[in-house]
Specification:
By secondary structure, this protein is an alpha+beta fold. The protein is built from 10 helices and 18 strands. The structure holds S-adenosylmethionine (SAM).
């Protein structure tokens, strides 16, 4: 199925500085459901894990799934490419022979987060030499107060400075930028997989990085990593529902079905703020019987979804007073097994008529706007292509 999207010639969002929230995007006019607010190409991309560790093989240059025989890197064969073209592209950029030999010589790092940070710092180092202007843009993104004393920065600096040439301060600063701004590009969704979907690659997007977080977002981000043609690593942000002019446009930095405690913990640890959005103000008063018993970090996605559902049922009450955001979960959270993605309409036609279809940003399922499951589902598994 091909849907032709027509981004408006005028920017639909404008940047503003909001006290206590930093730079943020505001709607520059009334925005209709499904309108494309932003399409953005990455400043840099890096793999979250090597292709050998991923649940499905992917090309370490274009990041698409590898469907035929992979082409291994001649210097470190656990890294694979989808074609000789991608291999030579990688060898002449961030996967140069000297870098991949050095990578192969690194001590084994058991922590996947640390391995991803190594990839990030190498990609940042490559960016600093190939595009100083883009490296400067990376440094201009939000990063809080990076302290070089952080033990991970000290470790990564000692490991990588001969390769990157970065000082300890620059290493710490870059790690902080990455933590606050990286978008995860996920492995393809498979309904049979329970548990958390794995990130295939991370990307830093210079414009999308200005979206602030809200636990009930009014926009959401789509990527189409496996599609053909240029721009498969671009991301697109679309409006979930009507957004009045001047209203802040926010994404959720993680799946919207996370519980209150887990959301607050992630926002504080990775983004350095306490969320006081409307939803959090309601949910902070909800009772959470499992609060002290379970370590949220250890829970798998299934348990989390179940727990969220239980919390909703327990706290929803008879009316909507305790659960004013119930509409969001009914309408905009995908109910496909193990999914929990956020749904946003496909873009309206150039004449402004609604598409009538709503798309999940995780499993890609399309649903007729008025249908909630059953016969209305367009579940033919075709996937979709959006021509930007
Ligand atoms: C990806 S950046 C978003 C753009 C950022 N405001 C800026 O000035 O560049 C993430 C950071 O924005 C801030 N932020 C995002 N959402 C927020 C919110 N709901 N309340 C307060 N600060 C928020 C936090 O400092 C967070 O670490």
């Amino acid at each position: 199925m091909t849907v032709v999207a027509s981004p408006s010639p005028e920017p639909l969002v404008r940047l503003a500085d909001i006290p206590g929230r930093g730079r943020a995007f505001l709607a520059s006019r009334h925005i209709k459901p499904g309108e494309i607010l932003l399409s953005d190409s990455p400043l840099l991309l890096y793999p979250a894990a090597s292709a050998g560790e991923a649940s499905s093989p992917f090309c370490s240059h274009c990041f698409r799934s590898v469907r035929s025989t992979p082409t291994p890197c001649p210097f470190c064969p656990s890294v694979v490419f989808c074609s000789t073209r991608c291999l030579s592209g990688a060898l002449s950029s961030c996967h140069s022979p000297s870098i991949c030999r050095a990578l192969a010589a690194l001590p084994p790092l058991p922590d996947p987060e640390l391995r991803a940070q190594v990839q990030f710092l190498l990609a940042a180092s490559s960016l600093s030499s190939t595009s100083p202007a883009n490296f400067h843009r990376l440094l201009s993104l939000d990063g809080g107060d990076a302290t070089p004393a952080q033990h991970e920065a000290i470790f990564l600096h000692s490991l990588l400075s001969p390769l990157t040439g970065f000082s300890l301060q620059v290493t710490a600063t870059l790690i902080a930028k990455d933590r606050r701004n990286a978008f995860g590009l996920m492995e393809p969704f498979r309904a049979q997989d329970s548990g958390e979907r794995r990130v295939r690659a991370y990307g830093i997007y210079p414009n999308a990085s200005f979206f602030n977080h809200d636990c009930l977002p009014n926009a959401c981000r789509f990527d189409y990593l496996d599609r053909d043609g240029d721009g498969n690593t671009d991301i697109m942000v679309r409006a979930i529902h009507d957004i009045p002019e001047g209203r802040e446009v926010c994404l959720s930095y993680f799946p919207t079905n996370w519980g209150y405690k887990e959301r607050q913990q992630r926002l504080m640890e990775d983004y350095g703020f306490q969320c006081i959005c409307d939803r959090c103000e309601v949910e902070k008063n909800w009772k959470d019987e499992d609060e002290d018993e379970e370590d949220m970090e250890e829970e798998d996605e299934d348990e989390r979804l179940e727990e969220m559902d239980e919390e909703i049922v327990e706290n929803a009450g008879d009316g909507n007073d305790e659960f004013p955001h119930a509409y969001f979960f009914v309408r905009y959270v995908c109910d496909q097994d193990n999914c929990g993605g956020t749904m946003a309409p496909l873009p309206p036609s150039p004449q402004g008529s609604p598409s009538g279809l709503i798309e999940c940003n995780v499993c890609g399922r399309l649903r007729k706007e008025d249908g909630f499951g059953g016969d209305d589902d367009d579940d033919d598994g075709d996937g979709i292509m959006l021509d930007q």
